Amino acid sequence: MIDHQVRVRPSADRLPREEQLAWKLAAVATGTQDAPGLDPDAAAMAVNRVIDNASVALAALRRRPVAVARAQALTHRATPGAALFGTAAETRVSPEWAAWANGTAVRELDFHDTFLAADYSHPGDNIPPLLAVAQHTGRGGADLLRAVVAAYEIHVALVKGICLHRHRIDHVAHLSAATACGIGALLRLDTATTYQAVQQAVHTTTATRQSRKGEISSWKAYAPAFAGKAAIEAADRAMRGEGSPSPIYEGEDGFLAWMLDGPDSAYTVSLPEPGEARRGILDTYTKEHSAEYQAQAVIDLARRLRERTGPLENVREIVLHTSHHTHHVIGSGSGDPQKYDPTASRETLDHSVPYIFAVALEDGAWHHERSYAPERARRPSTIALWQKISTVEAPEWTRRYHDPDPAHRAFGGRAVVTLADGTVIEDALAVADAHPAGARPFDRTGYTAKFHTLTEGIVAAADQERFLAAAGHLAELDTGGLDALFPAVDTDAVAAYDAQLPKGLF
């Protein structure tokens, strides 16, 4: 790996483009085709994530935000175009709108992959726009695999090197850069064109983190889809020979200077050397539970503690000692009263670790629909327990959250349960059971089981198997073969749900 130093530079320096971060990102992506073949482990993990994305997208087909995005996309038909989850096999829309609809479906349940480092991310959000562009431009499965591995490489590098959250910038700013790079790898664009696409994508997708604060709305699902759509539009514009704000990262009025650490900004972004295998995707991990990633280990911890606490009405207090991020983003350290509100939106409850811990402790399980149902959140016993749960930041857990060694990195915490008689019960869990270092790491069997579980009653058994067979041979699929990555569903039922929605402009 090569450590690239990135800092703000005055316009008078006339920083050569080859020394700019956007160029270096683009060079890694466009150099993917020159690497000595895809790393087999990275390629296999990319297939896992294609399966994972389809699982959660299909399970969300009749969620309102997904239906709205799909309805918007269906007004933008195109030839060749790209496919949509939940529509007839012959339906095709413009690729940027397919990225919008499919990206929203993938993100809606907060149930696909994650990577946490200096910042955090859901790198699987790169896949919908890349798949859409692959279909529209006649690329095959091998091209798509190359693009996915490249996008993950860039995404992981940016998340390791540049923290956005500290400045309340939404993490999709890194996503758009990664997707633009993935499109460059997919289409075998030159570095100069990909560089311009990266710059426009970053410029247009830098947004505040209010989308994940307070009363969280459906925009949480739309935000990454918007970034993917913007990256496709940026690539189209760059391919037509147009430039973009430059240098987008280092400029004195650019991203680092005014959105992040200011004129004295300095970061280190580590990228592969020419010819080095792209293995960044192997640093990422998926979810067993439909909730914010920092809640994954908390759910598993609650299930384990349930056997020791006895009747929950005897609980006086529960304090979860955890990392800075967990405490301030999804814990009581956020200062968001909505995190304790029984009438809060699903998106808000998804980002409330006190709520999640309470339900997991009561039920001994977590479900992507039942655990968020309004009647579940308003259950009196749940509300009573929920109000007794708080979080505190523990320096050791913050240190482990950022440990440079993946084997020691931890995203969980220590729960201290105090009962009415003064008895104290404690337990800790560093990582979720499904994490690569957890008790039951996800492998292909895990991804397949998740697909079967989430698509039961949505996709017929024979169509489930056809999808899994196609995904398992992704590298061998031609353009037409990519259609098999969109399993058949009851489109009449989906259309009937969509018809109930109010109309918009399109």
UniProtKB/TrEMBL annotation:
Region spans: Disordered: 325-345
Stored InterPro entries: MmgE/PrpD_sf (IPR036148), MmgE/PrpD_sf_1 (IPR042183), MmgE/PrpD_sf_2 (IPR042188), MmgE_PrpD (IPR005656), MmgE_PrpD_C (IPR045337), MmgE_PrpD_N (IPR045336)
Positions of the MmgE/PrpD N-terminal domain: 37-265
Top-level taxon in the UniProt lineage: Bacteria
GO MF annotation terms: lyase activity
Domain MmgE/PrpD C-terminal: 289-471
Family: Belongs to the PrpD family.
Protein name, entry field: MmgE/PrpD family protein
Organism in which the protein naturally occurs: Streptomyces kasugaensis
